[in-house]
Every structure is written in structure tokens, then in C-alpha cells.
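Review form for a predicted model. The reviewer records the input and the model, then writes brief findings.
Reviewer: anonymous (R2)
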Amino acid sequence: MIIINAFLFACQNNSSNKSCDYKKSNDTNEKFEVFINQFYSDTIFQKSRIILPLEGEILEWDKKDSVVKSDWTNKKINITNYETILKYKPNAKHTFVNGNETCTEKILIENSGFLMERKFILSVRKWFLKEYKISNL
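Model under review:
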């Protein structure tokens, strides 16, 4: 089992602070905190803010102890927020990393090999999920 021991994140967040502090935002851009709260609470809104085909990959072990890589083609996209994961996995860590018109959310379950990364982009003043990576190794 591959264990992810250390991660260097650009900014640390906890479950009560869901802002990427996007410095180039102006009053006409959607605020990330408002977007992310609605994204996790409204499934209709969520589906309207996922860019398809969704980029990213899923890495996991198969029955022969080989790593299997797949993408999101023909898969149901389930988006689980950090608070829900934390209820079942109290050792989960949550961070956001700022980029140039992007915000990457990372959820790591310590000592488990599980990492989830979701990359959101700002496009035409609105936030969208562009990439979703899951590593369960």
C-alpha cells in the first residue's frame, strides 16, 4: 500500500473556512465561498457547474494487486463534501490551493492512501468543476 505521508499545500483550511481567497476577484465575479456552498448543497446547481467531459482520473487497486487507472467516461459523478467525509473518517484533512483563476480542493485521509483533488476554474465570471482526481492506493 502506498501511504501518502506528507503534502505541501499552499494554503491550509478547515471545514469552517471554504474560501480560496481568490485575489483577482472583483465585484462582477462569483465569490468562491458562495459558489462552493451552493455546489455542495444543491445537486441541480452542481450538475450545471460541472464541465463535461470531466477531466481527471481514478487510481485504485484491482483484485490482482495492480494499479488500475480509469477516467470519468460513463461513470456516475458523485461529489461528496468534506464535512460528510469527516463524519466517517475523522483523520481526513482538507485544504484549498489558489491558482491563476483556479482553486484546487484537496481531501487527504491520513495513512490510508486516499487523496481526492477537485480543480475548479473561473470562467466567464462563474466557478465550474473542471477536473476530479481520486487516488485510493
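Findings: The longest strand covers residues 126-136.
Further findings: The chain has one domain: 11-136.
Recommendation: see findings above.
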